[in-house]
């Protein structure tokens, strides 16, 4: 929520924070000694952790310390990328653990169950200020291993340690050699950590029966909700999304347009997770909607036009209903001056070439659309072997044809272009050409509803590339597509392997040497938006980085 978190805890990587707190706080040994019963404990799920989080929390995150998940993460990439990641991990380990003779895998992972971070509003105010406080809840799954770990830490650092009691529970206040303060309390199998004493005290209150984060019905329901991703690494929960975002926006000077407020009203809660799939990382975000406030659910995109894109398309964005998107933009412009200025500029731009943006341009774009950047074997923009392609579906071919004819006549009259009419595979094609430079744009109707426009290359070259292989036959796209919901609002797709090859053809160091192994391991990225039902909106993104051994 905040860009200026004064607590400092929220800015550290969770694993690093867990290790630093443990490794840098030898005094904790005295706190645990004699208080750790030698038997397994209850698994610390997000909901179990929430039982000791005060009700003033407005969001939380949960990190799974799972051996299988970390094993899967370690398998990503080629040998060089793995070596690069291993080197970086060793550097981190040397700075945080090695000097203390501590191994995360051997000394910490065996007893840490899961880590929750709660984001809490300070008691001085009910809104969300910049100094949001954090409460960390670490599950202790094996108290024997935990005691062995703290035995190992005994006497390793000079610390200032103070002990006090609150509600008959010990709180340790520890200041390390760097001057950093922490407060700890052990609540059964949950170790709670915060920078402020009163945050730990509120956790103790919740543990002993006061209202907690878990007592809120909307929180309990959200924390029980699961995502359809494998090996979840981290999950983020925002239960009262509308209230939380509105309170945050109230602290800014920017006015909030009514349309934006209306969209906030539609969302009740948010759940975000990242999972370690075999093929790569899978991010999934679910917005739980209030069906009574949602006017319409967008129609599923048939994605028929994907078969018209060549297999070497390395950037793709497709969807449906440009006309509806324009109408929504115009509606927003009535309440937002910046958007209104943008809309005016577009209308004025088309007016200069004697076209009405509303009626002659966007109005006929009522079907599917797709934009692709394609690797070509010859020609292309500046002879770099790259070209663009736009495909537009319409139910009003007549209006579309008139608009394209007007654009062509304007280009001929004002830019000294040569206009040539030709035929490719029985399709009538109009080409825009600069003398000595070849085709810069062409268009033709594939059928009565679909017009294809090429950019920086010719219609003929794109059609020839498509005949070799279509995007739907591309193995990389197929793999990513298989992990995304098939009923969606379109795809956004990037083929990193093709982009990497293109960049390597440029002279000089276009990619920093230290980044090459990691970039070479990433095959592609795919994203979709879907609506599983009228009360759920879902975003999925897959970063393909499979093992290449």
Automatic annotation (TrEMBL):
Keywords: Membrane, Transmembrane, Transmembrane helix. Pfam families: DUF3352. It comes from the Bacteria. InterPro entries: DUF3352. The keyword Membrane applies. The chain crosses the membrane at residues 12-32. This is DUF3352 domain-containing protein. It comes from Crocosphaera chwakensis CCY0110.
